[in-house]
Amino acid sequence: MQPYQPQPQQFQPQFQAQPQMAQPHMPPPQQQWSGPPPGLVAPLGPPERVPDGVRIGALVVLGIALVGLSAFGGYEVAFYGGNKLQILLWFLPAIIAMLAMTAILQSTVYSVRSDGWVLEGTGVLGRQGIALTRLTSVTATAAGRAVQLVLRDDVARLTIDTKTLHKAGPAVLDVVGRAVWAGHAQGRYALPRTVAAVWGMPTRDDAPARGKAGATGRALAVVGLLLLGTVAGVVLALA
């Protein structure tokens, strides 16, 4: 396998000075903003972070809602019965709460963008981002053909579907690939094979398949709340 060779750097100087005027006593030329490189956005500044208090509060509210809504669904099914469509409608609010809670726990984002240094996207709790120059871990989760990348810096993490990353454009895909490869080359983490396959990067013989993303434990906790509420609802209906 050929070594991974990132594409030529796409960053261009952001300012272009006009030629000096030949006339004496003229003021120095003004600099003109040439815009960000194609496919990237203007500098984003420090990454947006979701405050811990906001995240914990949202998880508590959603957890209570999930138990209550699933109990309602379980009660309705046990007491009235119904066809598959009715069962789905009774549990639909609980499913929505479960998906929202899972997205917050995994810091899943969509509509990603980057300025070359910061990667950010929109999640359930708004905009949030990470510093690409400070990646400390890169892992992946997979379900069928869907692959999600879990990128962590020294403060936060983002979970991004590879399809979402491709939709952001070649420039964003390239700068994220550069950052992922830089962290691996500097020994900050071992590049999992699933992650390397996104960019066609080589891996070590002892490279993990996906790395430890921690998504399984979170998913089991959310499903546990769903089952807890459902059982409670069934018990109430049969009592």
TrEMBL record:
Q: Where is this region: Disordered?
A: 1-46
Keyword Nucleotidyltransferase among record annotations = no
Composition-biased stretches, type Pro residues, lie in: 25-46
Alphabetically sorted, this entry's keywords are: Membrane, Transmembrane, Transmembrane helix
Q: Where are the transmembrane segments?
A: 56-75, 87-105, 219-238
Q: Fetch the SUPFAM superfamilies from UniProt.
A: beta-sandwich domain of Sec23/24
Q: Where is the composition biased (Low complexity)?
A: 1-24
User: Could you identify this protein by its name?
Assistant: PH domain-containing protein
Organism, by scientific name, is Klenkia terrae
Q: What is the lineage of its organism?
A: Bacteria, Bacillati, Actinomycetota, Actinomycetes, Geodermatophilales
